[in-house]
Amino acid sequence: MAQTPSLGVPTHSLYVGDLHPDVTETQLNVVFSSFANFLSSVVRRDCFGRSLCHGFLNFRTSQSAQLAMESMNHTPINGKVIRLMWYEHNPEARRRGIGNVFVKNLDDSIDDKKLHMIFANCGLVLSCKVAVSEDGRSKHYGYVQFDSETSAQNAIQKLNGYKVYGKALYVTSFVPKGQRMLTDDEAKYTNLYVKNFEKHVTEEKLSEMFSKFGKITSLLISKDSDGVSKGFGFVNFENPDSAKQAKESMNGVQLGSKILYVSRAQSKSERQQEQTKRTKGVNVYVKNIGDSVNDDQFRMYFSQCGRVISAKIMRDTRGISKGFGFVSFSSTPEANKAITLLGGKKLFVNVITSEHIGPSGLPSPPAPIPNNA
Fold first, then answer.
1. Delimiting residues of CATH 3.30.70.330 domain(s) in the chain
2. What is the pLDDT of residues 169-182, one digit of tens each?
3. Rounded distance, CA 100 to CA 180, Å?
4. How far apart are alpha carbons 299 and 313 in whole angstroms?
5. In this structure, how many other beta carbons lie within 10 angstroms of the beta carbon of residue 252?
6. Which of 29, 289, 305, 361 could form a disulfide with 337 if both were Cys (CB 3.0 to 4.6 A apart)?
7. What is the predicted pLDDT for the residue at 180?
8. To which CATH superfamily is domain 191-265 assigned?
9. Long-range residue pairs from 156-163, CB within 8 A, at least 24 positions apart, any chain
10. Exposed, middle or buried by CB within 10 Å (0-12, 13-18, 19+), for 94?
């Protein structure tokens, strides 16, 4: 019989999540008693004695806990796959989501174990979880927790846009619920934004592709003053479930020589909020740029520091470079890397924060640095 420690949770403990509501401490003790130095288990319960579907496994040594995690992670107990990870003693780190990434556009076949395999080369993975509905079907998004923020940023840089089973992954830093906008999975919407299709694609063609998901109330391809397609448009469904299914199924699908991008159409306020969030703290101001440097060369130069969202050299009305520009990175650590690696070279670089964002939504240059600074 496993011995229960007399004081709190011991140092070498595993968190066990996604438990079936009927799983008890006695059952966990039986399952894990074959591992040397196993001490006890705890199933967390509410004030009425109902299982909270998670708990702790306590071991005398870290080696035993590690072996149990490697052997039993993502295995079923009472028909439900459990999730094991090291117990995080620092509640502040858990609340802030340090080392966590959010991933979406997952294929139906990707479960917790496969998600772990996809991200394992980016750093030490502590936990993986694919969100599922009540009937066990994937919601096509999930979470990966690493042992460090460095590994999390490495995963974002390497795997964002990486195709798995024909679908391009979207990988970004995890944002606590109280700090993020309403996600597509939480929102009810009928209107989709569709882009990255060739100019010869017609509204009839898009209607043929999207109507299999439900009744379309309107469909529009945006065109210029000459009536030429701009390569993007909107598809509005009668039913929110049809829109969600169409988004999940059509995003990443190849049409001709291009890959479609399909997302929920955002309101103006949402786009402004996203623009502010995207530019806050991850833009870099650069000056002393040579007159002959173009935007593509500018982008390529800074890509050594991380994933560049945009790179733009400011020009006058004649198209002549003003000698300064802006680089937007996918994360603050990447922007800081640009400062560290390139700040001592001919270019002058500086991080742009929210107070530098002008009324147009574009960054404004910081105040000039005095010569005697």
1. 13-86, 91-179, 191-265, 275-356
2. 898 888 765 555 55
3. 14
4. 10
5. 19
6. 305
7. 53
8. RRM (RNA recognition motif) domain (3.30.70.330)
9. 156/101, 156/307, 156/330, 156/331, 157/306, 157/307, 157/330, 157/334, 158/121, 158/122, 159/103, 159/118, 159/119, 159/122, 160/307, 160/330, 163/252
10. middle
Distance CA 246, CA 249 (A): 5
SS3 state of residue 243:
helix
**What pLDDT shows up at residue 352?**
42
Strands (E), 247-340: 254-255, 258-259, 261-264, 283-287, 308-315, 321-329
- Cβ contact 128:143 at 8 Å: yes
Q: To the nearest whole number, what is the mean pLDDT of the chain?
A: 79
CATH 1.10.357.10 is held by the domain 13-86: no
Residue ranges of the chain with per-residue pLDDT less than 70: 1-11, 88-97, 176-187, 268-281, 341-373
Contact 266, 274 (CB under 8 A): yes
Tell me how far apart the alpha carbons of residues 305 and 313 are, in angstroms, rounded to a whole number: 18
Residue 204 corresponds to which amino acid? E
CA angle 250, 259, 156 (to 5 degrees): 90
- In CATH terms, 91-179 corresponds, of 3.30.70.330, 3.40.50.300, 2.60.40.2150, 3.10.20.90, to 3.30.70.330
The superfamily (CATH) of domain 275-356 is RRM (RNA recognition motif) domain (3.30.70.330)
Closest of 193, 176, 64, 168 to residue 106, by C-alpha: 168
Per-residue pLDDT at 341:
67
**Cα–Cα distance, 114 to 103 (Å, whole number):** 13
Give the global pTM.
Answer: 0.40
How many residues can be counted in the chain? 373
Token pair in block for residue 8: 């709190």
User: Nearest 5°: phi and psi at 147?
Assistant: -80, -10
Nearest to 221 by CA among 207, 208, 234: 234
For residues 194 and 230, give the distance between their C-alpha atoms in angstroms, rounded to a whole number: 11
Interatomic CA distance for residues 238 and 331, integer angstroms: 37
Say if residues 106 and 115 touch (Cβ distance below 8 Å).
yes
